[in-house]
Amino acid sequence: MRMNDKVVILIGAGQSPGEGVGNGRAAALLYAREGARVLAVDSRLESAQETADAVMAEGGQCVALQGDVRREADMAACVAEAMRRWSKVDVLHYNVGVSLAGGDAKPTEITEDAFDAVNAINLRGYVMAVKHVLPVMRAQESGSIIAISSVAAISSTYPYVAYKTTKAGMIAFTEQIARQNAEFGIRANVILPGLMDTPMAVDTRAREWNRPRSEIAAMRDAKVPLRRRMGTGWDTAYACLFLASEEAKFITGVSLPVDGGGSLRGGD
Length: 268
What we know:
By secondary structure, this protein is α/β, with parallel strands linked by helices. The chain has helices spanning 23-33, 45-57, 72-86, 112-140, 161-180, 199-209, 213-221, 233-244, and strands at 7-11, 37-42, 61-66, 91-94, 143-148, 186-193, 255-258. Helix 3 (72-86) runs parallel beside helix 4 (112-140), helix 4 (112-140) packs parallel to helix 5 (161-180) and helix 6 crosses helix 7.
């Protein structure tokens, strides 16, 4: 019970349609299995409720809540709801990100509207969520903040500008809050997933590109050094569980690649 009696706000707890489990749902299940009470937040309430139902089916504690990261008031409401129910927040886990779905493009093709749309979800929403959870964590003199960025943030060859720059911004912001809040016992860390076999990463591409899922998966598998096989939502979730737990109590300001060695190829 590594998370016994902990309260977790997991923003982006739902997932896209498709095979397997996404990063957010896997994390919710792991946190609950380890004894945490989870507030599962998603812009689509039905998807957040599916996550909550999966947790409760295993005997865990989870409550679904609708929240749009593009609205600061919704991020404030997430923190307020956790405090109303449980009177504390031990972990803020921000698991939200879009790229092509938000109109992302290459540097010579990006539009103002597309860049602003991606930024509002990937980076601004994270900043606003942290803004409202920090006073709670400072008052209780403890807390763990976990952001899901991407190895795209450190890749010099990733082609789409809004996703890359906003995910890199998450790293910079996390380092800032880690240093400035260490005296309060607050830790902040970033996970950098690589190529993952999740519904958002694989099934969404298969639908958008009108290609078989197996073809997309095989193409991505071939790019992963470790066993030539993508990771899964569980791999990301286990890394988050470690950083959220007391096992990582002396770790803050870290960006942890979970990528099967993909970022070892000179940042490709």
